[in-house]
């Protein structure tokens, strides 16, 4: 007997660092949970955020984790966000060089295209504790990430500048560990993602 499997909504993997994970949110929803609640409550969603992960680490674990969570015949999607940890300075230099972050994104998008996955990329949030130097590095990096996304015809949501100027993000990160906000900051990030193209992307038929 053949069993017909029905998929009622998209299967979405959210892949990246602790901002994907929603670290620091007392409600344990982060921006990912808020976006899902607002725009796609029927999704089967997988949060694949790992604290302190750089783009290199995300790329290394991407396909074993994502392929285990996709299904033939489903609307398989991937939301990616990294770069904030790449730009953190350790031992006098960023953890991952600018050009390597850009190359890692290109490699990931190429892999997604070959696998037929619909992708949306969210730019890196600022790390308050990194100061002006960290923000300056993200300001150089973000346009390059956007350029790669444009080449692959993948939507890119730029959140860096808006969050750096957002009172809730700055106040909550400052009151916490210097990087991660609370509910208000993640709410603001969720709204930026929703307004920045997520709603249109999730409604697009990618088949």
What does the model show?
The chain is an alpha/beta fold and 207 residues long. It has 8 helices and 7 strands; from the N terminus they run βααβαβββαβαβααα. It has helices at residues 18-21, 30-39, 55-67, 98-115, 131-151, 160-164, 167-175, 183-203; strands at residues 11-16, 44-49, 76-81, 89-90, 93-94, 118-122, 156-157. The chain has a 5-stranded parallel beta sheet with strand order 2-1-3-6-7. Strands 4-5 form a two-stranded antiparallel ribbon. Strand 6, helix 5 and strand 7 (156-157) form a beta-alpha-beta unit. Residues 1-5 have low confidence and may be disordered.
Number of DSSP helices?
A: 8
> Percentage of helical residues?
40-55%
Radius of gyration: 17 Å
Structural class: alpha/beta
- In what order do the strands lie side by side in the largest sheet? 2-1-3-6-7
Mean pLDDT: 95
Biggest sheet layout: 5 strands, parallel
Shape: globular
Uncertain stretches of 5 or more adjacent residues: 1-5
Percent of residues in β-strands: 5-15%
Question: SSE order, as H and E?
Answer: EHHEHEEEHEHEHHH
Number of strands: 7
CA distance, first residue to last residue? 28 Å
Describe the secondary-structure layout.
Blueprint: E1 11-16, H1 18-21, H2 30-39, E2 44-49, H3 55-67, E3 76-81, E4 89-90, E5 93-94, H4 98-115, E6 118-122, H5 131-151, E7 156-157, H6 160-164, H7 167-175, H8 183-203
Parallel strand pairs: 1-2, 1-3, 3-6, 6-7
Antiparallel strand pairs: 4-5
Question: Nutshell version of this structure?
Answer:
With 207 residues, the protein is an alpha/beta fold.
Any key phrases for this structure?
two-stranded antiparallel ribbon, disordered N terminus, alpha/beta
């Amino acid at each position: 007997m053949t069993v017909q499997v029905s998929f009622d909504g998209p299967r979405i993997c959210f892949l990246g660092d602790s901002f994907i994970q929603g670290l620091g949110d007392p409600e344990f929803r982060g921006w990912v949970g808020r976006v899902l609640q607002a725009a796609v409550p029927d999704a089967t969603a997988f949060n694949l955020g790992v604290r302190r992960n750089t783009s290199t680490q995300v790329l290394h674990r991407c396909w074993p984790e994502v392929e285990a969570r996709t299904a033939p015949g489903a609307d398989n999607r991937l939301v990616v966000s990294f770069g904030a940890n790449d730009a953190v300075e350790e031992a006098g230099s960023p953890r991952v060089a600018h050009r390597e972050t850009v190359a890692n994104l290109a490699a990931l998008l190429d892999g997604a295209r070959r696998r037929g996955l619909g992708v949306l990329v969210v730019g890196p949030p600022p790390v308050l504790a990194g100061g002006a130097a960290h923000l300056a590095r993200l300001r150089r990096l973000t346009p390059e990430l956007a350029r790669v996304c444009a080449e692959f015809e993948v939507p890119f949501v730029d959140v860096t500048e808006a969050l750096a100027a957002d009172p809730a993000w700055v106040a909550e990160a400052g009151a916490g560990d210097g990087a991660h906000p609370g509910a208000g900051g993640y709410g603001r990030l969720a709204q930026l993602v929703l307004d920045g193209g997520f709603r249109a992307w999730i409604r697009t038929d990618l088949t």
